[in-house]
Amino acid sequence: MRFLLSFFVSGALAAAAGLTPLAEPDYTKLIAAHKGKVVLVNFWATYCVPCRAEMPSLVKLHEKLKAKGFQLVTISADEPEDEGRAVMFLDTTKVPAPRYIRKAKSEDAFIQFLDPKWSGALPATFLYDRTGKKIKALFGEADLKALEALILKTL
Amino acid sequence: MRLSLAALAFAIAAAAAEPGEVGQHVSTLHLRDLENRELTFSLHGKPTAVVFISALCPVSNAYNDRLNALYRAFSSRGVQLLFVNSNSNESAAEIAEHRRQAEFLFPVLRDTSNQVADQMGASTTPEAFLFDGRGILRYRGAIDDAKNPARVKQSYLALGLDELLANKPVTTAQSKSFGCTIHRVRKLN
Predict the structure, then answer these.
(1) What is the three-class DSSP state of B58?
(2) B171 at the A interface (CB within 8 A)?
(3) Is this model's pTM higher than 0.80 or not?
């Protein structure tokens, strides 16, 4: 438990400077560390136009529902050399921590691990309930009204 | 009799495959050129690689030189390479201008109703589908394993093509990579 907490806290602190690198085992720990909250994990990249377009709405959703136990987690799929641009976008858009960047050895294995039905197309959004169970996978731009309704139902 | 049973088993297996599932059988593809002329491509008789690309997606654009290299290497070896744009938010004029700027050696085909993308379950750019000479899908997924060409370790599509041309089984049947979502036509229910 202490390990999970330190992982979560270190992730939040690291986000202040850059993005926390994240691979498959880290993802499992990340979800476990947020048990008790409804978590929306959003995969995005600076090069992805619809990802950038929907991010402000996801931030608004976070601000609106965080008191009820909702948490937005973002994971950038950018290349390591684009991390600076990713941080700049997240800062400008006021995206809260925790903020991660994927650092898997194999992109193929990482995507397959996250969801066998996911091709890797961005954006992709996964919703977890308070027990850490994945209840929804959204590929492509999310229907934000439907997403908010589902989050409220899950909360 | 044994041969016809084998053919029957093959036909049943291919027919049962879902769109984009390795083993799926596709006989023809209907696409349009940039002048909006309808074209039909047979997938029988030679290996075919269908690559979904985009004029706007930076990941797809990171592959422009590699697409030319693939075309140069394999079109001369009897492979049919089809480069398809299924994005409803990219006009023929934009695609033509992009083709000129990227100095593509090949024509770019349009899939204006997403029929071909739906047929194969394609969702990403860039994404490749490799069919053998009988129209059976043998590989689907990334062109290779790195957006940055300096970091490529596995050239999945080129390897699969080499294997098909050598009459060997394709060793990697599927791979995934981050890319852009294909912007489909909104369909009324």
Answers:
(1) helix
(2) no
(3) yes
Return the biggest CA–CA distance within chain A.
Answer: 39
SS3 of residue A134 by DSSP: strand
* Of B56, B58, B124, Cβ closest to residue A121: B124
Q: Does A82 touch chain B (CB under 8 A)?
A: no
Indicate whether this complex's ipTM tops 0.90: no
Mean pLDDT of chain A: 90
Question: Helix or strand or coil: residue A88?
Answer: helix
Residue B130 one-letter amino acid: L
Contact B51, B127 (CB under 8 A): yes
Secondary structure class of B167 (helix, strand, coil): coil
Q: Minimal CA–CA distance to A37: which of A142, A155, A140?
A: A155
Cα separation, A20 vs A106, whole angstroms: 17
Q: How many CB atoms lie within 10 A of CB A107?
A: 19
Q: How many helices (H) and strands (E) does chain B have?
A: 6, 9
* Interchain CB distance below 8 Å, A48 and B180: yes
Q: Is B118 on the interface with A (CB under 8 A)?
A: no
Residue in this structure with the two tokens 């969702």, named with its chain if needed: B123
